[in-house]
């Protein structure tokens, strides 16, 4: 029960982060949201493992954390590169 | 008994193989004109020998058969020699050496290019003609029919890109009709009878009736575009761009004869006269042929170009054969078969003459021929004999064949046919006689170039065929016997 | 949530944002897989969708630019096609067995044997692994080959550019950034974690493929935080290429050995005296093959993409 | 080579903790191979990019962490207030460059990360001996300016450069 | 008919079609690839949801568990995911080459350039 | 005893959830990117700590606990690095922070000195 | 002992060889190795064909798990025929590749090229031989991925776009197949084809099953370029390297047709396909339009490769038409055409490759006068062309004959007419090339070209001769096709 509540709460957080990612407005906001989304997924998975009665799936949570981290780094590298190439702003202002 | 020490089956193989070997020889000897033409002539004579050697036994009733290979159950490449095919093979084999002699004279005289290719495809065409002659079933016939079509295309377009347009018309009509109409007809036949073999008395029997039968006949007649029944005759005048020996080949020996030959063969061996007799609607063939005869003759009358006039004459003459078939009387059938022979000799003479005139004087129009008979007496003499045969006047062989066709028409009381024959005879006379008259009796136009006879080879060839035209009138036994045996029961 | 993400992806024209959202989409899907008990799949989807795919897409965007033009033609026709296809599917699902009900044919046929007997027959607790590597080991070999084929494609298309030192005079290294210090410490653990996943696929979620991706991710992190040159120094493309082919051969070789020992292709039971042991060794070997191939292919593909980007 | 030694040891521990199979010979052997392989790779990296790591840091780090957790809890509550009661606790972002006393890259990293880890402050950039900090309010910066965290991290680093 | 039990599938179908639409309606090549991925991922969800057993748990032997979800779809989808990433990698590599050869990755611009090429031949 | 542990972990989990949601809301309440980073960091730090502690209490003293701690350490290790890198990139590429007026000039000055 | 393993060797020999080939690096070594492998594979396929020629079925259980739990390989006459044609074509194309590839592909990519070729080859064999529905998908992707690679190696930049287009279409197709398989699986719980065949009749009325059917048909339709899903094909074949065009045109679509047949008649059964789904009413119009439309489009192409590609679309129409005829003759015709079309398209594309080797391109104008300069090459082209047209004594005739018989058996005259009209159209497009090559002079200033080297001519002529041989000696093909058609229509083997 308590895991379910926690899981739902984390899902709410994820949803909020997702909305932030949709909204932007700047690229960095999106990245921030994505990063946050990722870390919350890690927690979510961890809680889910307990919820399902199989807490030995934490490996997956670890992978998520890892992938999330590398993903964010990659995105940042990308942004840096683009910004280097053109001084124009990278903001996704078209939305 | 054959006078060659080989079996008949071997003869069939040889008759097919010889042209191919000859073709190979021509390609190999391509660099040396004399050798090359020697090969051509040798092959031609050997072929003549082989084919003629078969005559006695065929006359004696032998029907040698040869299955080359079986593609699928019921579908094979099969040869069978029967009198009609023998007749056609003889014509082709006999005229080929003569045509070769003539070609040598013509091609050298006109300094044509790419002669190796020319001779090569020539033998391939003869190969096709032989295959058609000996075809034992529709599939084989179709195959060689296409070989003939394709191999004559390079000959028609020999003059190069300027002749390409006409070449396309030629090929287009022939291929379209053969695949679009003939092939379905064959398949249909196979579908209803389970075979495509040529059998005396026909194979259709009761399998098809009434309108369907007429439809099948329609498919066959127009599918065999080479028979040039209007309106699929357009290829023939188009092919006139070819060098004259080719025109001779097309019009006298191989192509058109293959066409009408196939029509005769299909009607006798696939349908059978008796099957067709009395079927409502079959008369359309008579009308179509008659129409073609008359209209083609009228058109011929209006042509000033000599070769075109001859071409339209051919269309008309071919439809005589079809007419003979359409009368559906055994005797006219014999006439039709004979007319294949008669027209072959007559028309080849005429074309040879036209070519000779062109070679000697570069004249191509009828209106230019005034007085030419005095410069080229042999040529124009032969021309006159050929023309007589076309009109159907003794002592030319054309008379005999027309006579039989007419007799058949009388027997079956087909007045339209009779009228057609009479009218066309008059028209034939109307477009040939003035030429002869002008050639011999009109004064030459002033300022004409001085010239003599065509090269010897050409003159020799046309004299030979002219002589044959007369000889066949005098001694028609062999072709007549063969024609009688095609199994329609002539008394 | 998934739907929302998908719609936004369609709508957004900044490709960069699209790619990021795609990575979220992947993570979401992976979470969903978790909920649906497909732990191994979730593992893979996270590593692949959110990890490798995203990185490759970013690598592409670096080269191609990141802004999409306004679509020129009307979307009506595609819409019709899509709606039609969807309609067929919805129509088709009307007769589908209901979600989750245990009496579906899916759960009645074939699968029970995997669930009930595989621990005895194959001898490892993770049924997914036993099905993957043993019952349907041939599929997995095919999967390895697919990865290999992708490598061939990428190599032949964009190749790995030889790294040329653009500034040969620069010998003095700039002070290491926070990121670099942090990453350096992290990388060994990532790599070891990958190997852990590799060898514990029998017991928990994971296996050769996931391990390969994680291992490659470790190297990729190194390349990202330091430079491609450093990464290539650590794992030289030439060596890695050999390893990629070796992985495939290891998988196939295991099969062939079992053939030579009298079984059929990939029948591991004959590998040892005891079928269970044989299965165990066989699975270990083929998983290793998968891991080697996947890791090296992922690295090489990454090298190819990034070196292409840096070349121009 | 304290670094490599440290890595090898912690890798081994890491493996054993992850694996949980301490009695399975095969897995232990594989673990040994794995650690060796990763150790080799780490060594390769280390040759390219050496790390200055002292045992002192390792020993003192846990103490620092405990302290840091306390700081984090405090900082969290602060930010929480700003989220829920933005009227009373307004968000007044501020950015300021602060000095840092660490010498080595590792020390600087630890300091900067510690700043970031405490909500309310985030290290934006490290240039030379100064760190640019963004804070959600002036109090955060003030807290840092007191310099306790800086001192503690420097203490971790010890005298070695 | 109790359609609630099928609701799950319909969501999947919606996602699938969203991806599919992106693939065929969008001119940007990268976007096409993204769409393709979404399309495939949704199919994966379809498979996985087939394998779910209510009350079941992940198919790894555990003392606590009584029912397991079906492992077979998992295996299939593992393979399919790998196939998907392989395709993606290849597609992206192609895009890079296309960009280099044409200077754009918009489908209509490429088509226009191709037509020009053909006109010249 | 068990009850106590349960209640404790309940509390921890609930507190963690509350913190997380707060952080997420902060993501919307805070005016600019830089301040949102702080909100996000709330969820990454204390929220994660609380939730994982809650789980640890449930798991007891097993390997699972160890793994949970590893996950937490990992998160704590990566999250500041990522945040820092993110902020640095944003700052470096000219995303202006929204600052209180008094601070504005100071920062400009700072930038001039740091970039030179 | 080895005999038992033949089915699996058929696939894994080229599959694993690909990995070895990858290691061989540059130079001629990969080529030599790949060629050797293709011959070995061909030999294996012949041995398999001999084993099943009596109508028996071979089964091979991979991993030692009996189906439906494990994956099995099943070989009957149907796939033996396809195996022989695929490996036969490969055995001819690989020797050919050496010179052609030297000319068309950068040297550093040769190793990769042969690796991709082997992968593609192995994938196609695998699709053909496998008895597991999902395994089809995996192997399909192996061959597809390597195909995309191979196409993109073409010289023209349009090779890239066409490869990409193919990638998108192909992946959609594969995903459709995946959906279809998934739906079937949902209903039956099994993936083994034989097992499916047993279980499907029990749930015939299910709508899900019908939806699955639709997805599988469309999916394979995309892969085999069923009209109107053919759009990827012409460009892909036109811009791929010559060797690749030849290999793909001769094998890839054939295997897709085979797979479709397998699903239509083995997995689903005849009753379902024809009666419940009425598939013939879909196939026949589409096939007829494909035959006519594609043939007409082919006539207006300037690039001969593309012309042949459109011709392929038309020829695929013939095969589908055969399926749509709902009788054994129709299926026999489809199978025969499958085999024969591989021979003729192979010969044509190889001849074209030789032309491309000498003159560097394949646009029709550039081929003027080649009849003289490259007599053997062009003669092979003509033989292939005759076969496409369906002239008696060529292989093309045999299959068309059966197809026409099939239409006649049903009394469907208009279809007979359509087939004949299409043959006429084929005459036109083949003739265009013949006319230009034989009856045009070489344009002024065009470089003199020589006959293609022997290593190109020989394989080309092997296929050209095969066209004639199988047009004359039809025992092998017809008996296999008939046996296979009978077993397809007779339900599960």
UniProtKB/TrEMBL annotation, chain B:
Localization, per the record, is: Cell membrane; Membrane
Q: Which domain of life is it from?
A: Bacteria
Q: Tell me the GO molecular function terms.
A: oxidoreductase activity
The protein's matches in Pfam families, at most eight in alphabetical order, are given as: Proton_antipo_M
Q: What is this protein called?
A: NADH-ubiquinone oxidoreductase chain L (EC)
Q: How does it sit in the membrane?
A: Multi-pass membrane protein
Q: Where are the transmembrane segments?
A: 39-60, 81-98, 118-148, 169-190, 210-229, 249-272, 284-301, 310-331, 381-404, 416-441, 453-475
> What is stated as this protein's family in its record?
Belongs to the CPA3 antiporters (TC 2.A.63) subunit D family.
Q: What class of enzyme is it?
A: oxidoreductase
| Keyword Oxidoreductase in record | yes
A GO CC term attached to the entry: plasma membrane
Q: List, for all copies, the residue spans of the domain called NADH:quinone oxidoreductase/Mrp antiporter transmembrane.
A: 135-427
Check the record and name the InterPro entries matching this protein: CPA3_Na-H_Antiporter_D, ND/Mrp_TM
**So what EC number does this one have?**
1.6.5.3
Carries keyword Membrane? yes
Record keywords: Cell membrane, Membrane, Oxidoreductase, Transmembrane, Transmembrane helix, Ubiquinone
What is the originating organism of this protein? uncultured Thiotrichaceae bacterium
Automatic annotation (TrEMBL), chain D:
InterPro entries hit by this protein: Cation_antiport_E (IPR002758)
What is the membrane topology noted in the UniProt record heading this document?
Multi-pass membrane protein
Q: Which Pfam families match?
A: MNHE
Recorded GO terms, molecular function? monoatomic cation transmembrane transporter activity
Q: Which PANTHER family match?
A: NA(+)/H(+) ANTIPORTER SUBUNIT E1, NA(+)_H(+) ANTIPORTER SUBUNIT E1
Going by the entry's taxonomy, the superkingdom of the source organism is recorded as: Bacteria
Q: Name one GO cellular component term.
A: plasma membrane
**Bilayer-crossing regions:** 6-22, 27-45, 57-77
Record keywords, A-Z: Cell membrane, Membrane, Transmembrane, Transmembrane helix
The name this protein carries in UniProt is Cation transporter
- Keyword Lipid metabolism belongs to the record: no
Specify whether Transmembrane helix is a keyword of the entry. Answer: yes
List where in the cell it is found. Answer: Cell membrane
Which family, according to UniProt? Belongs to the CPA3 antiporters (TC 2.A.63) subunit E family.
From TrEMBL, chain F:
Q: Which InterPro entries match?
A: PhaG_MnhG_YufB
Q: Name one GO molecular function term.
A: sodium:proton antiporter activity
Q: Where are the transmembrane segments?
A: 7-28, 48-77
Question: What does the UniProt keyword field contain?
Answer: Membrane, Transmembrane, Transmembrane helix
Q: What Pfam families is this protein classified in? A: PhaG_MnhG_YufB (PF03334)
Domain of life, source organism = Bacteria
Q: Which PANTHER family match?
A: ANTIPORTER SUBUNIT MNHG2-RELATED (PTHR34703:SF1)
What is the name listed in the Swiss-Prot or TrEMBL entry for this protein? Sodium:proton antiporter
**Taxon lineage:** Bacteria, Pseudomonadati, Pseudomonadota, Gammaproteobacteria, Thiotrichales
TrEMBL record, chain G:
Give one Pfam family. Proton_antipo_M
Keywords assigned? Cell membrane, Membrane, Transmembrane, Transmembrane helix
As for membrane topology, the entry says: Multi-pass membrane protein
Please give the superkingdom of this protein's source: Bacteria
Q: The NADH:quinone oxidoreductase/Mrp antiporter transmembrane domain covers which part of the protein?
A: 132-425
Major localisation: membrane
Cleaved signal peptide residues: none
Q: Where is this protein localized, as stated in its record?
A: Cell membrane; Membrane
Q: Which residues cross the membrane?
A: 6-24, 31-52, 78-99, 111-130, 166-188, 208-226, 238-261, 281-300, 307-326, 338-357, 378-399, 411-431, 452-472
InterPro entries from the UniProt entry: CPA3_Na-H_Antiporter_D, ND/Mrp_TM
GO cellular component, alphabetical, reads: plasma membrane
Q: Which family does it belong to?
A: Belongs to the CPA3 antiporters (TC 2.A.63) subunit D family.
Protein name (Swiss-Prot/TrEMBL): Cation:proton antiporter
């Amino acid at each position: 029960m308590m895991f379910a509540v926690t899981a739902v709460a984390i899902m709410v957080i994820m949803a909020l982060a997702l909305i932030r990612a949709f909204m932007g407005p700047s690229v960095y906001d999106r990245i921030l949201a994505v990063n946050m989304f990722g870390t919350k997924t890690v927690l979510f998975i961890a809680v889910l493992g307990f919820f399902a009665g199989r807490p030995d799936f934490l490996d997956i949570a670890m992978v998520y954390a890892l992938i999330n981290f590398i993903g964010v780094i990659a995105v940042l590298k990308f942004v840096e590169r683009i910004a280097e190439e053109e001084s124009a702003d990278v903001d996704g202002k078209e939305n | 008994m054959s006078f060659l020490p080989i079996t008949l089956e071997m003869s069939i193989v040889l008759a097919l193989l010889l042209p191919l070997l000859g073709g190979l020889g021509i390609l190999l000897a391509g660099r040396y004109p004399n050798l090359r033409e020697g090969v051509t002539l040798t092959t031609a004579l050997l072929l003549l020998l082989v084919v003629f050697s078969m005559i006695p036994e065929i006359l004696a009733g032998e029907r040698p058969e040869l299955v080359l290979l079986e593609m699928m159950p019921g579908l094979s490449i099969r040869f069978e020699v029967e009198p009609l095919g023998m007749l056609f093979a003889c014509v082709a084999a006999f005229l080929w050496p003569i045509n070769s002699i003539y070609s040598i004279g013509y091609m050298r005289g006109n300094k044509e290019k790419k002669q190796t290719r020319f001779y090569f495809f020539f033998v391939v065409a003869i190969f096709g003609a032989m295959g058609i002659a000996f075809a034992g079933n529709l599939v084989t016939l179709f195959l060689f029919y296409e070989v003939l079509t394709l191999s004559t295309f390079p000959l028609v377009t020999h003059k190069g890109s300027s002749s390409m347009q006409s070449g396309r018309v030629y090929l287009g009509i022939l291929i379209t009709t053969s695949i679009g109409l003939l092939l379905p007809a064959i398949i249909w036949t196979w579908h209803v009878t389970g075979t495509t073999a040529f059998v005396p008395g026909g194979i259709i029997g009761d399998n098809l009736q009434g309108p369907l039968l007429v439809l099948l006949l329609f498919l066959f007649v127009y599918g065999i575009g080479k028979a040039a029944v209007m309106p699929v005759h357009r290829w023939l005048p188009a092919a006139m761009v070819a060098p004259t020996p080719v025109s001779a080949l097309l019009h006298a020996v191989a192509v058109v004869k293959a066409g009408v030959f196939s029509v005769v063969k299909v009607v006798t061996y696939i349908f059978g006269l008796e099957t067709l007799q009395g079927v409502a609607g079959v008369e359309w063939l008579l009308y179509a042929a008659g129409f073609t005869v008359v209209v083609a003759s009228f058109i011929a009358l209006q042509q000033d170009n000599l070769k075109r006039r001859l071409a339209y004459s051919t269309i008309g003459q071919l439809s005589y054969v079809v007419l003979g078939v359409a009368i559906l009387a055994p005797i006219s059938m014999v006439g039709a078969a004979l007319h294949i022979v008669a027209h072959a000799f007559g028309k080849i003479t005429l074309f040879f003459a036209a070519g000779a005139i062109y070679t000697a004087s570069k004249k191509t129009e009828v209106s230019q021929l005034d007085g030419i008979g005095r410069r080229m007496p042999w040529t124009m003499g032969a021309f006159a004999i050929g023309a007589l045969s076309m009109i159907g006047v003794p002592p030319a062989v054309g008379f005999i064949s027309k006579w039989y066709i007419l007799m058949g028409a009388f027997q079956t009381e087909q007045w339209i046919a009779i009228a057609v024959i009479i009218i066309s005879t008059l028209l034939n006379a109307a477009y040939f006689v003035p030429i002869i008259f002008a050639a011999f009796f009109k004064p030459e136009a002033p300022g004409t170039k001085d010239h003599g006879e065509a090269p010897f080879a050409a003159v020799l060839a046309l004299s030979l065929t002219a002589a044959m035209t007369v000889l066949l009138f005098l001694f028609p036994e062999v072709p007549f016997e063969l024609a009688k045996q095609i199994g329609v029961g002539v008394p | 949530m998934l739907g929302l993400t998908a719609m936004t992806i369609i709508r957004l024209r900044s490709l960069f944002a699209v790619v990021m959202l795609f990575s979220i989409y992947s993570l979401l899907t992976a979470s969903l897989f978790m909920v649906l008990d497909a732990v191994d799949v979730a593992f893979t989807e996270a590593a692949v969708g959110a990890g490798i795919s995203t990185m490759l897409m970013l690598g592409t965007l670096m080269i191609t630019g990141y802004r999409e033009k306004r679509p020129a033609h009307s979307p009506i026709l595609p819409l019709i096609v899509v709606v039609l296809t969807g309609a067929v599917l919805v129509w088709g699902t009307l007769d589908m067995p209901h979600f989750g009900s245990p009496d579906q044919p899916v759960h009645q046929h074939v699968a029970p044997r995997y669930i009930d007997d595989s621990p005895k027959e194959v001898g490892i607790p993770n049924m997914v692994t036993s099905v993957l590597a043993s019952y349907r080991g041939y599929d997995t070999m095919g999967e390895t080959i697919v990865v290999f084929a992708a490598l061939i494609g990428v190599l032949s298309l964009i190749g790995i550019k030889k790294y040329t030192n653009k500034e040969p005079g620069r010998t003095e290294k700039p002070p290491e950034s926070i990121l670099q210090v942090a990453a350096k410490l992290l990388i060994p653990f990532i790599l070891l974690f990958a190997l852990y996943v590799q060898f514990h696929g029998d017991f928990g979620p994971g296996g050769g493929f996931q391990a390969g991706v994680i291992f490659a991710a470790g190297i990729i992190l190194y390349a990202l935080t330091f430079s491609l040159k450093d990464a290539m120094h650590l794992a030289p493309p030439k060596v890695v290429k050999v390893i990629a082919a070796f992985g495939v051969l290891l998988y196939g070789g295991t099969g062939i050995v079992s053939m030579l020992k009298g079984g059929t292709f990939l029948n591991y039971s004959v590998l040892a005296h005891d079928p269970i042991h044989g299965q165990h060794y066989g699975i270990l070997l083929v998983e290793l093959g998968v891991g080697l191939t996947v890791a090296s292919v992922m690295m090489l593909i990454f090298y190819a993409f990034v070196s292409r980007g840096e070349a121009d | 080579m304290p670094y490599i030694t440290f890595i090898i040891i912690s890798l081994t521990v890491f493996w054993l903790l992850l694996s949980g199979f301490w009695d399975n010979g095969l897995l232990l052997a594989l673990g040994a191979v794995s650690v060796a392989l990763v150790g080799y790779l780490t060594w390769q990296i280390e040759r390219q990019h050496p790390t200055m790591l002292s045992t002192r840091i390792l020993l003192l780090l846990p103490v620092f962490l405990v302290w840091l957790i306390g700081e984090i809890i405090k900082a969290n509550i602060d930010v929480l207030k700003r989220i829920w009661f933005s009227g009373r606790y307004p968000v007044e972002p501020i950015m300021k460059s602060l000095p840092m006393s660490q010498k080595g890259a590792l020390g600087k990293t630890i300091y900067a990360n510690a700043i970031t880890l405490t909500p309310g402050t985030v290290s934006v950039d490290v240039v030379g001996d100064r760190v640019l900090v963004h804070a959600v309010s002036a109090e955060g910066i003030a807290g840092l300016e007191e310099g306790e965290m800086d001192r503690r991290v420097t203490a971790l680093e010890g005298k070695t450069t | 008919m109790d359609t609630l039990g099928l609701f799950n599938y319909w969501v999947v179908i919606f996602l699938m079609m969203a991806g599919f639409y992106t693939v065929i309606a969008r001119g940007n090549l990268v976007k096409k690839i993204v769409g393709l991925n979404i399309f495939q991922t949704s199919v994966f969800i379809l498979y996985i949801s087939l394998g779910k057993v209510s009350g079941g748990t992940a198919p790894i032997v555990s003392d606590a568990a009584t029912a397991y979800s079906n492992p077979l779809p998992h295996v299939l989808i593992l393979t399919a995911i790998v196939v998907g990433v392989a395709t993606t990698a290849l597609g992206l590599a192609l895009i890079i080459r296309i960009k280099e050869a044409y200077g754009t990755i918009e489908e209509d611009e490429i088509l226009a350039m191709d037509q020009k090429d053909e006109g010249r031949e | 005893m068990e009850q106590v542990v349960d209640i404790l972990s309940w509390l921890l989990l609930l507190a963690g959830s509350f913190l997380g949601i707060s952080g997420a809301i902060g993501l919307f309440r805070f005016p600019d990117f830089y301040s949102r980073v702080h909100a996000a960091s709330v969820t990454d730090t204390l929220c994660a700590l609380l939730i994982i502690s809650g789980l640890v209490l449930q798991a007891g003293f097993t390997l699972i606990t160890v793994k949970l701690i590893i996950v937490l350490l990992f998160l704590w290790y990566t999250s500041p690095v990522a945040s820092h890198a993110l902020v640095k990139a944003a700052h470096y590429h000219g995303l202006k922070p929204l600052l209180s007026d008094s601070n504005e000039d100071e920062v400009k000055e700072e930038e001039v000195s740091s970039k030179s | 002992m080895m005999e038992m393993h033949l089915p699996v060797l058929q696939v894994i020999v080229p599959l694993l060889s690909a990995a070895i080939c990858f290691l061989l690096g540059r130079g001629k070594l990969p080529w030599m190795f790949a060629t050797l492998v293709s011959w070995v594979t061909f030999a294996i396929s012949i041995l398999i064909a001999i084993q099943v020629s009596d109508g028996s079925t071979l089964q091979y259980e991979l991993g030692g798990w009996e189906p439906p739990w494990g994956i099995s390989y099943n070989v009957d006459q149907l796939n033996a025929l396809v195996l022989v044609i695929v490996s036969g074509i490969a055995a001819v194309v690989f020797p050919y590749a050496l010179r052609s590839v030297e000319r068309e592909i950068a040297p550093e990519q040769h190793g990769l090229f042969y690796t991709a070729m082997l992968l593609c080859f192995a994938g196609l064999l695998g699709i053909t031989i496998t008895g597991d529905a999902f395994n089809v998908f995996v192997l399909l992707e192996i061959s597809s991925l390597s195909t995309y690679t191979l196409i993109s190696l073409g010289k023209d930049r349009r090779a890239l776009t066409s490869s990409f287009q193919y990638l998108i279409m192909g992946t959609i197709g594969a995903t459709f197949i995946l959906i279809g398989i998934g739906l079937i699986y949902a209903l039956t719980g099994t993936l083994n084809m034989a097992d499916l065949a047993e279980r499907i009749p029990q749930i015939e009325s299910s709508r899900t099953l019908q939806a699955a059917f639709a997805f599988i048909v469309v999916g394979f339709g995309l892969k085999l370029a069923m009209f109107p899903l053919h759009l990827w094909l012409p460009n892909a074949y036109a811009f791929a390297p010559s060797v690749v065009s030849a290999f793909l045109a001769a094998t890839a679509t054939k295997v897709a047709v085979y797979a479709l047949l397998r699903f239509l008649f083995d997995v689903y059964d005849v009753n379902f396909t024809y009666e419940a789904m009425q598939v013939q009413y879909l196939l026949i119009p589409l096939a007829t339009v494909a035959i006519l439309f594609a043939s007409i489009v082919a006539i207006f192409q300037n690039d001969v490769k593309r012309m042949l590609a459109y011709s392929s679309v038309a020829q695929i129409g013939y095969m589908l038409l055969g399926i749509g005829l709902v009788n054994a003759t129709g299926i026999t015709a489809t199978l025969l055409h499958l085999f024969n079309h591989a021979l003729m398209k192979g010969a044509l594309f190889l001849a074209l490759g030789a032309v491309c080797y000498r003159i560097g391109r394949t646009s029709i104008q550039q081929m003027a006068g080649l009849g003289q300069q490259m007599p053997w090459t062009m003669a092979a082209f003509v033989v292939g062309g005759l076969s496409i047209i369906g002239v008696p004594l060529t292989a093309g005739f045999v299959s068309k004959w059966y197809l026409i018989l099939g239409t006649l058996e049903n009394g469907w005259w208009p279809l007979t007419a359509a087939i004949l009209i299409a043959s006429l159209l084929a005459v036109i497009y083949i003739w265009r090339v013949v006319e230009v090559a034989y009856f045009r002079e070489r344009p002024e200033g065009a470089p003199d070209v020589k006959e293609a080297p022997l290593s190109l001519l020989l394989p080309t002529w092997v296929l050209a001769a095969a066209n004639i041989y199988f047009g004359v000696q039809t025992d092998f093909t017809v008996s296999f096709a008939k046996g296979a058609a009978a077993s397809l229509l007779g339900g599960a083997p």
